[in-house]
Amino acid sequence: MSNKLVIILIGVMFVLILGMGGGMFMMWSKLAVISAHTVIPDSDKSAEKAKPEQAGKVVALDTFIVNLADPGANRYLRVTMDLEVSGSGKTPDEEITRRTSQLRDAILMILPTKKFSDIVSTEGKTALRDELIGALNTLLTTSKISRIYFKEFVIQ
Fold first, then answer.
1. Where are the alpha helices (DSSP H) in the chain?
2. Are strands 64-67 and 143-155 parallel, antiparallel or unpaired?
3. Do 20 and 70 fall into the same domain?
4. First CA to last CA across the chain, in angstroms?
5. Please, are residues 82 and 64 in contact by the beta-carbon 8 Å criterion?
6. Please, are residues 59 and 94 in contact by the beta-carbon 8 Å criterion?
7. At 87, phi and psi to the nearest 5?
C-alpha cells in the first residue's frame, strides 16, 4: 500500500469517529432534555392525581388447578386469586363467604375452557379477569366484585 492511501484511510476513520462522537453527543443532550421534562411534574396537578383509590375488602380464594382446553396437549393452569369486594351491606364479604361454593363453581366452569394461547399474554389474562368478574357479579346481589388479583398464575 502506498503512503497516500494509508493517510487517506486514517483521515476517513478519524472523520467517521468524530461524526459518531458528535451524533452520540447530540442524542445524549436530546434525551437529557426529554427526561428532564418528564421527571419534573407540576406539583399541584400531581398531588390531585396521586390520591389512591379507596380499596374494598379483599377475600382470598383457595388455589384452582385445572386442565386447559388445548387439544393434544397436557397443560394445566394453577391460579390463586383474591377478590376485591364492595357492597351496600356492613360486611360485603359475608355474601362472598356464603356463596363461596357457587363462586368456585363459576370459576371452575370458565377456567378449563381456556387455551394456552388465550391466557399466555397480558391481554389474555386481563380478558380472563374481566370475564370472571362478569360471571361472578351475576351471582351476587348485595356485593360486587370490583377487581380480581392473581397471586399465582402458573401454566405448565
1. 3-39, 43-49, 93-98, 100-110, 116-119, 122-137
2. unpaired
3. no
4. 63
5. no
6. no
7. -170, 175
Alpha carbons 13 and 8: distance in angstroms, whole number = 9
CATH assignment of the domain containing 79: 3.30.479.30
Helix (H) or strand (E) holding 57: strand 57-60
The half-sphere exposure of 148 on its side-chain side, counting CA atoms within 13 A, is 22
| Residue 93 sits in the same domain as residue 20 | no
Q: What is the pLDDT of residues 6-52, one digit of tens each?
A: 899 999 999 999 989 888 888 887 777 776 656 555 555 555 565 56
The span from the CA of 18 to the CA of 20, in Å, is 5
**Three-state DSSP class for residue 111:** helix
- Nearest CA-CA partner of 71 in 117, 129, 123: 117
Of residues 55 and 6, the one with the higher pLDDT is 6
Q: Can you read off the three cell numbers belonging to residue 20? A: 459518531
Q: Are 70 and 48 in contact (CB under 8 A)?
A: no
Cell numbers 388445548 correspond to what residue? Answer: 70
